[in-house]
Amino acid sequence: MKEAHAKGYRSRAAFKLLQIQNQFKILQQKQKVLDLGCAPGGWAQVASQYGGQVTGIDLLEMDEISGVNFIQQDFSTWQSSEMFDLILSDMAPNTTGNSTVDH
Fold first, then answer.
1. Is the Cβ–Cβ distance between 33 and 85 less than 8 Å?
2. pTM of the predicted model, to two decimals?
3. Alpha carbon distance 15, 43 (integer Å)
4. Candidate from 28-32, 41-45, 94-98 with smallest mean pLDDT
5. For the residues 21-47, what does the mean pLDDT come to?
6. What confidence score (pLDDT) does residue 8 get?
7. Distance of alpha carbon 37 from alpha carbon 30, whole angstroms
8. Which long-range contacts (CB under 8 A, 24 or more apart) does 11-20 make?
């Protein structure tokens, strides 16, 4: 986490997307990108740096990121007529701490 903050990223997850980008070049300028489960914003932050139009959606609050349109809502009930070039998600379900249930 310290390295992420030192480099100006919101979370360590930013490094995962940067690694994917370095290997597969999935982010391109002028893309419309949808980031599902975007909070705290590491992936949305990286995607916006590549010049795309980023929409992030999450149940949790998220501080504003320049170039990112954030929607606080359950993505499963969200409706949009907008088409996206790329959909990202680094979501994980909430856990209870009970390994039998969480498994």
1. yes
2. 0.90
3. 9
4. 94-98
5. 97
6. 93
7. 22
8. 11/40, 11/41, 11/42, 12/42, 13/42, 13/43, 13/90, 14/42, 14/43, 14/45, 14/46, 16/43, 16/90, 17/42, 17/43, 17/46, 17/47, 17/88, 17/90, 18/46
Closest CA to 26 of 91, 89, 93: 89
Structure tokens at 65: 């990121």
Map tokens 């992936």 to a residue.
43
pLDDT category at 95 given cuts 50, 70, 90 is confident
Report residue 9 as tokens.
């990223």
